[in-house]
Amino acid sequence: MAGEAASLPLSVVIPAFNEAGNLPALVEETAEALRGVTAFEIVCVDDCSSDGTVAALQALQPGIPELRILRHQSRSGQSTAIRNGVLAARGAWIATLDGDGQNDPADIPRLLQARDAADADVKLFAGWRVQRRDSGSKRWASKWANAIRTWALRDDTPDTGCGTKLFERAAFLSLPYFDHMHRYVPALMQRDGWKTASVPVNHRPRASGVSKYDNLGRALAGISDLRGVAWLIRRAKRTAIEEL
Fold it and tell me: Which Gene3D superfamilies match (predicted)?
């Protein structure tokens, strides 16, 4: 499912799994934050939820015509949901938010302002949760994961796990795709020769439901992923070209 690239200035892609208690309010906040700021669409990608997430979204569509709903036919994970949302999106630029409601849609206009003030070769504006609203164990695990990743990849990004991001659609779709790639987008963008910037954003407590990640599972997957991304960076090769 391919979108009509650049027919809109902005698409907001929200991946979700079992977030019926959080997603409707998040979608409403997103529409409120962007109306009058830019033309946009909201693309929610449901990863086979079993709690009525899709029905809750469908109930919003009459009042939010900007809302589009995609649903995976099999569980595929967050990275695949983001990528499928971007593929279907019609925006030249993509903003992402996690479906749990902890990211604040009011930060999207701030990211747009940062983009407008930046050089054209900055293709990613990554949210930086300066004040995390998570459990102590989750904050501790993220702190160490970010430190190890920064040491290994030198991506100069303090918070790659933040779901609030703004990036150019074409630049994102040129990146190598793999499961869990959403945690390495800054390093992959830099591998392709683009600049990235980190922007402080708001972070909120989860209002409903439970996290879909556990620290051990994330760590085990992260070790393999980190080695793979480091290999991709080492093997990258770029050269300037000219048309004759």
Answer: Spore Coat Polysaccharide Biosynthesis Protein SpsA, Chain A
Rounded CA gap, 108 and 34, in Å?
A: 8
| 241 located within any domain | no
pLDDT along the chain (244 residues), means of 10: 75 97 97 98 97 96 98 96 98 97 97 98 96 64 68 82 96 95 94 96 87 56 80 86 89
Contact 37, 112 (CB under 8 A): yes
Find all residues with CB under 8 Å of 217, minimum gap 6, and list them. Answer: none
Question: What global pTM score does this model have?
Answer: 0.88
Adjacency order of strands within the sheet including 195-201: 67-71, 40-46, 8-16, 91-96, 165-168, 122-129, 195-201
143-to-95, 116, 133, 158 alpha-carbon distances in Å? 24, 30, 13, 9
Residue 244, in any domain of the structure: no
Which residue(s) pair with 114 in the sheet?
none
Partners of residue 71 on adjacent β-strands = 46
Distance CA 80, CA 17 (A): 12
Residue ranges making up the domain that contains 167: 8-235
Which domain CATH number covers 222?
3.90.550.10
Residue 243 lies in a domain: no
Give me the helices (H) in 97-209, please: 107-117, 136-153, 169-173, 185-191
Q: Which two tokens stand for residue 169?
A: 């659609």
Measured distance between the N- and C-terminal CA atoms of the chain, rounded to whole angstroms: 36
- Which 3 state secondary structure label does DSSP give 1? coil
